[in-house]
């Protein structure tokens, strides 16, 4: 099978498409023929070796987290899906594997694909929407959230999920993405090119730093007395902030997303009822994986980049 791998950490030119043996499944896994897979900033971080302590030094290392595809085989411990089903989901952890023609994935990490959307759209949603859901489901309707980086993958999902949960959403964007973020339901918009976010005359119950260019201390003044700073960036500073604020009123939290059936089913319901819509920036063939990484690193995508794995 064709798969994207790296044999060393580095720039996009370390990405290779190679032939690998078809994976064998374990009793709790399913073999999926991948139709589409999403590309995420996480893939570029892994490629560059930014999280070597988590990804290790065992090469070749496969990339790719979220996917949509066909169930080819299931282990005897997997009961909720069958051969022939079309599923969506995401790989937990840091070793990837979705940027390949086939993947052996734990059955607990995939669920039936939502109806009413394309395979590419289904592949675009799992990682970002799971991240947003797991960050925000702890909050109550009426609370105020600030989403920093609302036009990217996690941001576009976060705005929609925050509104489904009844939160009041203030979101950052630039002039070129105002209409997109407004269409997703944001209550208030802040153009970060025109206004210093740290000087806003407002307070929020949660500051969701999707873009990752702030830290807890820099936005404490924007939090209510028991407000929470949430980040998706698993670096030492953020983990230390989460630890040291564990028993204080204002807190920091690092979201380490975990794909699971219950959350995927909850998201599927929102998709099928029109409350959560995928936002796709562009679709590339797998052969353009280096160009995809280069585009991701511009940090100017609107929504998700999706890779077409199997020719339709």
Plain-language structure description:
There is one protein chain. The chain is an alpha/beta fold and about 300 residues long. The protein folds into two domains: about 1-125 and about 280-310, Medium-chain alcohol dehydrogenases, catalytic domain (Quinone Oxidoreductase, Chain A, domain 1, Alpha-Beta Complex); about 130-255, NAD(P)-binding Rossmann-like Domain (Rossmann fold, 3-Layer(aba) Sandwich). It contains ten helices and 16 strands. The chain has helices at about 40-50, 50-55, 120-125, 125-135, 155-165, 180-185, 215-220, 235-245, 260-270, 290-295; strands spanning about 1-5, 15-20, 30-40, 60, 65-75, 85-90, 100-105, 110, 145-150, 170-175, 190, 205-210, 225-230, 250-255, 280-285, 305-310. Strands 3, 5, 6, 7, 8, 15 and 16 form a seven-stranded mixed sheet that branches. Strands 11-10-9-12-13-14 form a six-stranded parallel sheet. Strands 2-1-4 form a three-stranded antiparallel sheet, with no helix packed on it. Helix 4 (about 125-135) crosses helix 5. The mean pLDDT is about 95.
Mean pLDDT: 96
CATH class of the largest domain: Alpha Beta
Shape: globular
State the end-to-end CA separation.
17 Å
Poorly predicted segments: none
Q: How many structurally independent domains?
A: 2
The CATH architecture term of the largest domain is Alpha-Beta Complex
